[in-house]
């Protein structure tokens, strides 16, 4: 951010009075611009023993597989956003219940929070949206594990197949930190009741 959207004067980066963090500030109109983490919401869409994955048509990680997910929009609940993203990326309609929250990941290094919801496909009428090259159902032994786009997606898939065998789906929260060589350290913070 270089210029103030309110008055078009140059923006400075400093700690404003009464705060303890660096903020983008306009000294001309006294506006403070807070930058907060982004919420990424998605689903784990299932059909019998398979999971629906999307092959990304956009960067980052173009060509790799992921669960349908994207940025939460203003005015949406997290569940509404996850359902919308699934419709946009996979053209899929879902059947969900209210306690479908499955996994939450805090990624403080990149200022993001991921939330995934478990869902059942309402039917097999799905197709790739504009952000996907293709969409496909995979059983556990068919998952392209070496071509999964993001560490949190891989972890969510591993959890799901493990939980499916145990027939228990507790809600879990993780902290994810990346090392200098971009390896993800995913640590369980808490685990709720069975969902």
Describe the 3D structure.
- The protein is mainly β and 195 residues long.
- The protein folds into two domains: 1-35, Ubiquitin Ligase Nedd4, Chain: W (Single Sheet), CATH 2.20.70.10; 38-191, Nucleoside Triphosphate Pyrophosphohydrolase.
- 15% of the residues lie in helices and 39% in strands.
- The protein has helices at 78-90, 151-166; strands at residues 12-14, 23-25, 32-33, 38-47, 50-56, 65-66, 69-71, 94-95, 101-107, 112-121, 132-138, 170-178, 184-194.
- The strands form two sheets. Strands 4, 5, 6, 7, 8, 9, 10, 11, 12 and 13 form a ten-stranded mixed sheet that branches.
- The termini are far apart.
Distance between the termini: 42 Å
Number of DSSP strand runs: 13
What percent of residues are in strands?
A: 35-45%
CATH class of the largest domain: Alpha Beta
Class by alpha and beta content: mainly beta
Largest β-sheet summary: 10 strands, mixed
Which ranges are low-confidence, i.e. pLDDT below 50, for 5 or more consecutive residues?
none
Looking at this structure, what is the CATH superfamily of the largest domain? Nucleoside Triphosphate Pyrophosphohydrolase
Order of helices and strands: EEEEEEEHEEEEHEE
What is the correct CATH architecture of the largest domain? Alpha-Beta Complex
Query: Helix content range of the residues, please?
Result: 10-25%
């Amino acid at each position: 951010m270089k210029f103030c959207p309110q008055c078009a004067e140059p923006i400075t980066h400093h700690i404003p009075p009464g705060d303890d963090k660096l903020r983008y500030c306009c000294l001309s109109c006294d506006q403070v611009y807070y930058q907060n983490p982004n919420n990424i919401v998605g689903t784990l869409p299932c059909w019998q023993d398979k999971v629906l994955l999307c092959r990304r048509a956009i960067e980052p990680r173009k060509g790799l597989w992921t669960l349908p997910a994207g940025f939460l929009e203003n005015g949406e609940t997290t569940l509404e956003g996850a359902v919308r993203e699934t419709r946009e990326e996979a053209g899929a309609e879902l059947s969900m219940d209210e306690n479908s929250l499955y996994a939450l990941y805090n990624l403080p290094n990149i200022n993001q929070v991921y939330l995934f919801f478990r869902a059942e496909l309402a039917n097999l009428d799905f197709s790739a949206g504009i952000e996907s090259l293709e969409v496909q159902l995979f059983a556990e032994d068919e998952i392209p594990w070496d071509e999964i786009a993001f560490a949190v997606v891989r972890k969510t898939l591993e959890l799901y197949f493990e939980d499916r065998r145990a027939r228990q789906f507790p809600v879990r929260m993780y902290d994810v930190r990346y090392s200098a060589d971009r390896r993800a350290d995913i640590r369980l913070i808490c685990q709720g009741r069975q969902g």
